[in-house]
Amino acid sequence: MPSEGRCWETLQALRSSDKGRLCYDRDWLLRGEDVLQECMSLPKLSSYSGWVVDHVLPHIQKNAPPSETSASSVSTSALNQPSSVPRSPLRNPAFSPVSSAISNGTKDKHESPHTEPMVLQSPRGMKVEGCIRMYELVHRMKGAEGLRQWQEEQEKKVRALSEMASEQLKRFDERKELKHHKEFQDLREVMEKSSREALGQQEKLKAEHRHRAKILNLKLREAEQQRLKQEEQERLRKEEGQARLRGLYALQEEVLHLSQQLDASDQHRDLLQVDLSAFRTRGNQLCSLVSGIIRSSSENGFPTVEDQAVAEGALQEMRDLLSNLRQEIGRACEEKRRRDEEEARIKQQESQMQQRPEAHKESPIPNQGPGAKPNEDLQVKVQDSTMQWYQQLQEASSRCVLAFEGLSSSRDSQAKKIKMDLQKAATIPVSSKLKEIFDKIHSLLSGKAVQSGGRSVSVTLNPQALDFVQYKLAEKFVKQGEEEVASHHEAAFPIAVVASGIWELHPRVGALILAHLHKKCPYSVPFYPAFKEGMALEDYQRMLGYQVKDSKVEQQDNFLKRMSGMIRLYAAIIQLRWPYGNRQETHPHGLNHGWRWLAQILNMEPLSDVTATLLFDFLEVCGNALMKQYQVQFWKMILLIKEDYFPRIEAITSSGQMGSFIRLKQFLEKCLQRREIPVPKGFLTSSFWRS
After folding, report:
1. What residue ranges carry the coiled-coil annotation (predicted)?
2. What b-and-e string marks burial along 552-565, b requiring 16 or more CB atoms within 10 Å of the CB?
3. What sign for the dihedral angle of Cα 503, 505, 509, 511?
4. Residues 6 or more apart from 296 whose CB is under 8 A from it?
């Protein structure tokens, strides 16, 4: 039927409508709820209805089309009529956003499995309710937006407060750090202040200490000066005493020498029949007197001025005694001569045989000169004690040569090599490096190994090596004097100081030096070799010190030059000592030997050209040291040379050999005029050793 078809369409339309999609709770009766209570009760307006009526509805009516306006008017009339149709969102386009917002706002409510039934109102009521809901939604959205803005503001405030707190914390940290800096600065200022105060106190203490030290130094300097003054006085006293003692020794030596001359006069006693016992007795008494003075002086320390005066008086008396003796012998000789002449006239033939002079077995020293006159005060032979000393040195030198004869004559290559190395080490020339050369020579002689020619050398390599080295070393020193000092006079002092130091530590080397020196320069003894019968002329010239090669004798100038070099070396050795040695020990061959040499050479007849040359060289090198050592006695010796010895030299010197004599005479006259012997050129002073 047609009506049945419409019925189904109607039901289908209802099912598709909003109401048909509503869910109904079938158990509402069981819960006891009154479904119709809301429909039966009077409609109630929301608390926002007034605001909606005043503000929202007029705005909606202005914007709504006429059809809806009429519809709204119709629905207004039915506002108070309830309806059982469930609420559904409006389909008006004007409210679609709101309904969508409402549906979004109430989405959580629709998610429930059963939707609560709502009381249907009239269209007007529903519109009003929709506006109310829309207002509430807008109010909630504004509230949410306000809340969000408030939250953002709060977050901004929180951030601002956090930043402010952070800045305040930074300022606090800065203030705290600044406070720490200020405290540290204050503490440092306090420490610096205390340090300055401490430094000031320290400087004050230092100034006080310096002041006290200055006072103490002044006192110490005064005490040291006083001590040095006392030591100087004691030294001067000792030097004066030693000088007087040495003078006494020289006086004793001269007295003994004069006593020997007195004893030698005994040969005239039987010949001349003269009693000379009184002279000998008085001479012995004078010798005993001088010996007693020296003995007492040695026991008491040093001789006094009175002792020296007594000894000089004894010497003068001895000289007078010897002079009287000679005069007595001269008178006796004259008387004997007269008696002999008388006997000769009686027995002419016998007297001629008796007066014939015997041939002299030994001739006098050559080069006496045409104007020389015999003098009984001087002699041509050396003293017996000096000659004995000279012979002992030559015998020691010969024994040393025999001691290393096996090494020198060995044909073994190893022995020859050792000999060459030892000779190189021993004959090292003395140059400017004195300390190094001395240490090397001393080490070699002490048995230590030294470097020579790139090889190690020692005297322990051969039993005869030490004798060989000592002999060659002494020979080398004398050869340097003969050659180097002869050409350069200043070289005598460095060679002499090394030789003196080695002599002090190794006395045998010193004895060998003297043996070589005496052999090459016999005038250093002093010794004038005599020409003996049967002796070859060349051998005699060699004994005098001349060099003879191929029967040719060297020139006189060269001979004097070599003798001068060796005498200068000897004069330098006796006054110099090695500065690094033991100063407490005496010089092994000191100035007393120089004084003895000078006294003995003046007691001998001069030689033409030789004596003047050697005296000049000796006094120029050693005169200053002898002057300081012997003082008054030295000047007496110089006056003796000028007054007594110069005429003797001049008498035997030819006109072509006057150069050395004039040089000696001018030198001594200048020294007497200045009353001082100058320091020799090249002398090694204390500044030399410091440099």
Report:
1. 206-242
2. eeeeeeebbbbbbb
3. positive
4. 307
**pLDDT at residue 615, rounded to an integer:** 95
Residue the block writes with tokens 């010197």: 653
Longest dimension (CA), the chain: 243
Count CB-CB contacts under 10 A for residue 543. Answer: 17
Is the distance from CB of 547 to CB of 559 less than 8 angstroms?
Answer: yes
Q: How many angstroms separate the CA atoms of 205 and 648, rounded?
A: 79
In this prediction, residue 256 carries a pLDDT of 79
Residue 260 CB partners (closer than 8 Å, separation 6+): 383
Of the candidates 228, 221, 46, which has an alpha carbon nearest to the alpha carbon of residue 121? 46
Residue 586 DSSP label: P
What is the Cα–Cα distance from 377 to 660, expressed in whole angstroms? 24
Which residue do the tokens 């939707």 mark? 115
Q: Residues 518, 519, 522, 526: what is their CA dihedral angle, to the nearest 10 degrees?
A: 30
State residue 114's pLDDT score.
Answer: 42
Two tokens at 377? 């005060």
Q: What is the 3-state secondary structure (H, E, C) of 281-331?
A: HHHHHHHHHHHHHHHHHHHHCCCCHHHHHHHHHHHHHHHHHHHHHHHHHHH
- On the CB side of 104, CA atoms within 13 Å amount to 10
Is the peptide bond prior to 526 cis by the omega test (within 30 degrees of 0)? yes
CA distance 426 to 422: 6
So what's the pLDDT on residue 597?
94
**Position 144, amino acid:** A
Q: Model confidence over 635-646: pLDDT tens digits? A: 999 999 999 999
Q: What is the dihedral of CA 140, 145, 151, 155, to 10 degrees?
A: 170
- Tally Cβ neighbours within 10 Å of residue 186: 10
Closest CA to 289 of 263, 304, 272, 308: 308
Measure the CA–CA gap between 68 and 208, rounded to whole angstroms: 124
Q: What is the pLDDT of residue 635?
A: 93
Asked whether 524 and 567 are in contact (CB, 8 A), the reply is: yes
pLDDT confidence bin for 335, thresholds 50/70/90: confident
Report pLDDT for 469: 93
Q: Which of the residue ranges 58-62, 372-376, 672-676 has the most confident prediction, judged by mean pLDDT?
A: 672-676
Give the number of C-alpha atoms closer than 13 A to the C-alpha of residue 170, restricted to the C-beta side: 5
Alpha-helical runs (H) found in 579-657: 591-602, 610-630, 632-640, 646-652
* Dist CA 44 CA 79 (whole Å): 11
pLDDT digits (tens, 9 = 90+) for 9-38: 887 887 788 777 776 666 655 655 555 555
Report residue 527 as tokens. 């010794």
C-alpha closest to that of 450 among 436, 464, 432, 434: 436
Average pLDDT for 513-525:
94
Rounded CA gap, 390 and 385, in Å?
Answer: 9
Residue 457: phi and psi, rounded to 5, are -125, 140
How high does pLDDT run on average in the chain?
Answer: 78
Nearest to 614 by CA among 581, 571, 643: 571
Which among 544, 474, 465 is positioned nearest to 502, based on CA atoms?
Answer: 474
Residue 388 contacts by C-beta under 8 Å, 6 or more apart in sequence?
Answer: none
Distance CA(640)–CA(652), nearest Å, equals: 18
| Separation of alpha carbons 685 and 624, rounded Å | 13
Instruction: Tell me the C-alpha distance between 187 and 189, whole Å.
Output: 5
Confidence (pLDDT) at 82:
40
Round to whole Å and give the CA distance between 594 and 575: 9
